[in-house]
Write a structure and sequence with these properties.
mainly alpha; two-stranded antiparallel sheet; 71% helix; 3% strand
Length: 188
């Protein structure tokens, strides 16, 4: 999976570009914003990063508003987990696009900017985001199921995953647990 690298400088430059400054003053403001971003708590940094990513996927005239809306939505979750923040931002972004497409009548064949200056079909952009969301949701589901397993069962499962043979005692324990408690995993 390719991850998008977003630096504090990227976010700071985007924020400063909305100010009425130029030249050397622009550069010094960027440095000032970078220092401010570095001083933020982890959930705020994650909110800015995910807001930056998805705000780049809307038309230029909508980016500042989208950035603010997404940053606030993610910040409200107070999460430091980038995957969860990404999912929250993606849902808000997706809702925004459905409303925007109604106004603008975009088709899936429309050519849009991918946020990195490349022109791509809107359908390709959405497919890429959906693939990432499926993978991220799968990872979250797997972690939730893993956390439900008792420690001794986790050890047995790890041995099975790396294809190590189980002892008779481990097989019996796993069989007993799945017969009596395994339904909890199915309900997770």
């Amino acid at each position: 999976m390719n991850t998008i690298k977003v630096t504090h400088r990227d976010i700071a430059k985007m924020m400063v570009s909305a100010l009425p400054v130029g030249g050397e003053e622009f550069g010094s403001k960027v440095e000032e914003y970078i220092d401010t971003i570095r001083a933020l708590p982890a959930p705020a940094k994650v909110a800015l990063k995910t807001a930056y990513i998805f705000s780049r996927k809307v038309p230029r005239e909508e980016r500042e508003d989208m950035f603010q809306d997404l940053a606030m939505a993610v910040l409200k979750t107070q999460t430091g987990d980038e995957r969860l923040a990404y999912a929250v931002a993606r849902c808000d972004w997706k809702n925004w696009w459905s409303k925007f497409k109604i106004r603008q009548h975009y088709s899936l064949d429309s050519v849009v900017d991918d946020g990195e200056g490349n022109k791509v079909a809107l359908s390709e952009l959405i497919i890429g985001e959906c693939e990432f969301e499926i993978k991220a949701n799968g990872d979250l589901d797997a972690q939730r199921i893993w956390d439900l397993l008792p420690g001794d069962i986790q050890g047995i499962v790890q041995k099975r995953l790396i294809q190590q043979p189980l002892t008779n005692r481990e097989r019996a324990r796993l069989s007993y647990w799945t017969g009596t408690q395994g339904y909890k995993v199915a309900l997770a």
